[in-house]
Amino acid sequence: MSNEMENRMEEQLRVDAVIDEINIKEKKLSSQITGLKENVVELRKNFWEDITVNIDEPDDIIETQESIKQQAALLSEKERYHGKIGEELKTLDKLKSSPYFGRIDFIEESELERDQIYIGISSLMDQGEEDFLIYDWRAPISSLYYDFSPGKAHYETIEGPINGEITLKRQFIIRQGKIQGMFDTGVTIGDHLLQQALGNNASTTMKSIVATIQKEQNKIIRNEKSNLLIVQGVAGSGKTSAALQRIAYLLYRYRGELNADNVVLFSPNPLFSSYIANVLPELGESNVKQITFLDFLKVGIGRKLAVESPFEQMEYVLAEMKENHYVTRMNSMDYKSSLNFKQMIDQFISYLNDEAIQFRNITFRGSMLISKGKISDYFYSLDKEISIANKMELVSKWLLKELRQIQRSEKDKDWVIEEAELFNKEDYVKAYQQNEDQNAEDEEEILRREVVRRAFATMKRRIKRMEFVHILATYKKLFAEWNPPVAPEGWEEISEQTATNLSRQFLTWEDATPYLYFKEKLLGNVHDRSVRQLIIDEAQDYSAFQFAYIKEIFPYTRMTLLGDINQAIYSHISKDNPLVPDSGQGSMERITLTKSYRSTRQIVEFTKYFAPGGNLIEPFNRDGSKPLLTKISEQVDLGEKLKININEFKEKGYETIAVICKTLKESEEIVNILQDKMRVIQITEETYAFEKGVLVLPVYLAKGIEFDAVIIPDASEERYSQESDRTLFYTACTRAMHELSILSLNEPCRFIKAVPKDKYDVAK
Ligand SMILES: Nc1ncnc2c1ncn2[C@@H]1O[C@H](COP(=O)(O)OP(=O)(O)OP(=O)(O)O)[C@@H](O)[C@H]1O
């Protein structure tokens, strides 16, 4: 028997032994969980029987409450434990099919014995709880596997670095408990496994990459020191994958201190959120909160204003060039994305400290209780040194005090008793309950109090929410009456356009963040202080203003920004982006990824010629066919050509075939052309999950996602005519894993022309 076969048999025996251990452990836990389940059911059933309920005397009430609390605590402890075992069982089930994916043999310096370290998605100890049969991929020692080839190596522990030597590095593919592949690797984590992982069809949900994390990705995943970690990585370099493994790593590393609720991920669109939703559960972790920046802003802005989405803005930029106010709007976007506009708002706010904040009258039953003039006078009588937000707090307290007085005098009016006459039984009970600590004896008095309490309750709530400040009207003044000390060119037109939108209660995307920033400067911000880690994917699409805002509202939060400046589709905002080197960000660490894993070598070799930044892009060595360019001379042929293309891809076994358009408008046209020829799925801003098939979508919704085959339905010079279209075209082409097909009505665009002819085929 060859050495290789012998090794494989030995390894299979070990896999079998580990699976035996898993089975034993599983049995133990299953019997525990059954017992626990019965226990919990019993506890729930007899909850009240085990409690002595006695409400005769105050002391008895306290005792009863205590007894209920204890019983509830016992129940919830058992339920939590039940949940924990359930999770453990799920992990064991995964381990049973594929217990580990890697092994290293390591001899620590000054020790003679060689440790065999097997690495999988979770740790497993032997029955005696003495030795690790499997090490979690996130354990300190496991970093050896990702960072070193055989030879001298070291890893960090809390007590300091451990040095030694790796004598063997082995990779496994184990499915259903059987070793299907086994490779001893040299330099990096071998091509075999990666080739296999990347050669598969795209799926509608992202997969974890634990078994094949590359050294440079591991740096991102295990980085613990930086408060701000910035990752610039070319398309398909594994930024999103690394971000998700990083979250799993941090949850493991800081278990007990950090849980999924403390981590927030800003994702580019709802489709992307569902695309990545599986990764953390697959790694045995709970999902963290994922939200688009649009939804995040909407929570703060409130429901009364309509907010444009970034995609609507994008569609305007790309499709409404002929609109009368286009140039003004573009200038407005430019300026409002910059820190200059933030400065302008700050200047406006200091002006507001002296005058001009708009308030609302407080009215009740059609008459004025407190006028906006009176509120304004009170506000401006307060010390100027106090911040506006703190002064608003004082105004709110003052208003509530005034209201209490008015409430007392209102109580004796005739309308009150008329309303009380409409009370039903429940209202009576409520009235008496409310009266408990006021001790009124007279029934009429009790009812009158209840009527006015109710009538004033909404008003009080609104005052607590600071609704007495007219934020929109005040913000509008920035564009209407106030003269800024420094203004950009065309400010008058920008102001006019903005004021018109605000009058329609409409916030453009470029106004959304500034408006919320402004609102919070006036009213104070109420953001969740428990966010300890914020991850921003597709960070190239955030403006300098948006970043500055995010930093202000999360002052103590560690941040990881990942993106690719080459894919900055909102070209007007990329100037001050932190992904650009030397963008002047403070203390931070920057990691650059240059290797692209998603697409075949042929696709990367094609797309890198029109990559916007001209940065280094190295393809991972996976072969496929060259991109194909098909020239069409008549628009009427498009449908037929698309159909042929799609059918060819289907025959090759591809399951996700995306027709990626420049705009939503174009994608609607394509759907119209295709829908009587085959089943097509149109993806819009409202699509929350996608299925396999033929998908038609605008490029900005394809961000972060990948497909087996991509078709660009019209890559003509007419369609992609501007330099600013470069990032869009690049983003669209780089979504392809295995095949890229480009159709062009007449002359292909300048980006294709920049590619040497030997890098693509032209259809006859
Ligand atoms: N180490 C790895 N092992 C296996 N697959 C990997 C690895 N790194 C990246 N990939 C695969 O490469 C593809 C691209 O990864 P990912 O989407 O994370 O890249 P990205 O940098 O976020 O891309 P983009 O910016 O273009 O959206 C995915 O299919 C991912 O699974």
TrEMBL record:
<keyword id="KW-0378">Hydrolase</keyword>
<dbReference type="InterPro" id="IPR048228">
    <property type="entry name" value="HelD_bacillota"/>
</dbReference>
<dbReference type="InterPro" id="IPR027417">
    <property type="entry name" value="P-loop_NTPase"/>
</dbReference>
<dbReference type="Pfam" id="PF00580">
    <property type="entry name" value="UvrD-helicase"/>
</dbReference>
<dbReference type="GO" id="GO:0043138">
    <property type="term" value="F:3'-5' DNA helicase activity"/>
</dbReference>
<dbReference type="InterPro" id="IPR000212">
    <property type="entry name" value="DNA_helicase_UvrD/REP"/>
</dbReference>
<protein>
    <submittedName>
        <fullName>Helicase</fullName>
    </submittedName>
</protein>
<dbReference type="InterPro" id="IPR027785">
    <property type="entry name" value="UvrD-like_helicase_C"/>
</dbReference>
<keyword id="KW-0547">Nucleotide-binding</keyword>
<dbReference type="GO" id="GO:0005524">
    <property type="term" value="F:ATP binding"/>
</dbReference>
<dbReference type="Pfam" id="PF13538">
    <property type="entry name" value="UvrD_C_2"/>
</dbReference>
<dbReference type="GO" id="GO:0000725">
    <property type="term" value="P:recombinational repair"/>
</dbReference>
<keyword id="KW-0067">ATP-binding</keyword>
<keyword id="KW-0175">Coiled coil</keyword>
<feature type="binding site">
    <location>
        <begin position="233"/>
        <end position="240"/>
    </location>
    <ligand>
        <name>ATP</name>
    </ligand>
</feature>
<keyword id="KW-0347">Helicase</keyword>
<dbReference type="GO" id="GO:0005829">
    <property type="term" value="C:cytosol"/>
</dbReference>
<feature type="domain" description="UvrD-like helicase ATP-binding">
    <location>
        <begin position="212"/>
        <end position="600"/>
    </location>
</feature>
<dbReference type="InterPro" id="IPR014016">
    <property type="entry name" value="UvrD-like_ATP-bd"/>
</dbReference>
<feature type="coiled-coil region">
    <location>
        <begin position="19"/>
        <end position="46"/>
    </location>
</feature>
<dbReference type="GO" id="GO:0003677">
    <property type="term" value="F:DNA binding"/>
</dbReference>
<dbReference type="GO" id="GO:0016787">
    <property type="term" value="F:hydrolase activity"/>
</dbReference>
